[in-house]
Design a protein that fits this description.
The chain is an alpha+beta fold. The chain contains 4 helices and 9 strands. Helix 1 packs antiparallel against helix 4.
């Protein structure tokens, strides 16, 4: 199996600090996270050589949202006409640059994300590959302030899970210690934080 380096990054969910001591703890944790990212990145750039105290893990690199059905509540906020032949000023067409508000939930009603909570719209160019296919398709022909709820099957979102999507990475002893200090376990079935979200560990080799 092809070994491909993945940059792991660490984040800590810290409660808001009200004292100077708590603020210092937060700052120290941020520095630890930066150091961890740098250390793992350097280690992944090695040509497969490992020390006997390193840990090899195989992770599932499917998008965490693969095979899931997603529900989006979409509201068009702004339309900037960009397509060469686009003439409908108040209607979304392919290649228009638009801004939307949205709420992303799962079929059981659990909310995953919302631009309303952040009070920040999402800008993107329609059908430019910036969004999942079903989202692009949903906004076409909508008008400013139109609202729509769409349910997207995996084929319209992040696809089905591919059992062959696996990658091997190496975690140094120091990085393992830092991960465990942040409540991440290095064991089969556990999750590691990556740029794609938290990915599952399929195998652990000493």
């Amino acid at each position: 199996m092809k070994k491909i380096a993945i940059l792991l990054f660490l984040w800590l969910a810290l409660a808001s600090c009200t004292t100077q001591e708590q603020k210092q703890v937060t700052q120290n944790n941020k520095q630890t996270n930066n150091n961890l990212t740098t250390n793992i990145n350097k280690n992944m750039e090695k040509t497969g050589a490992t020390q006997n105290w390193d840990t090899k893990v195989i992770i599932d690199t499917n998008n965490p949202m693969a095979w899931k059905t997603l529900v989006f509540d979409i509201e068009i906020v702004k339309i900037d006409k960009k397509g060469k032949n686009n003439t409908k000023k108040d209607t979304v067409e392919v290649w228009d640059s638009i801004e939307v508000n949205y709420k992303w939930t799962f079929t059981d009603g659990t909310k995953f994300d919302s631009s309303y909570d952040r009070k920040q719209t999402l800008p993107f160019t329609v059908w430019a590959g910036q969004m999942i296919p079903g989202f692009d398709k949903a906004v076409v022909w909508m008008k400013v302030w139109d609202k729509k709820t769409v349910t997207l099957k995996p084929e319209e979102a992040y696809g089905q899970r591919d059992p062959n999507k696996k990658q091997e990475i190496v975690i140094t002893a120091a990085d393992k210690k830092n991960l465990e200090a942040a409540w991440y376990e290095i064991k089969k079935g556990a999750k590691l934080p990556t740029r794609m979200g938290e990915l599952e560990i399929l195998e652990v080799e000493k």
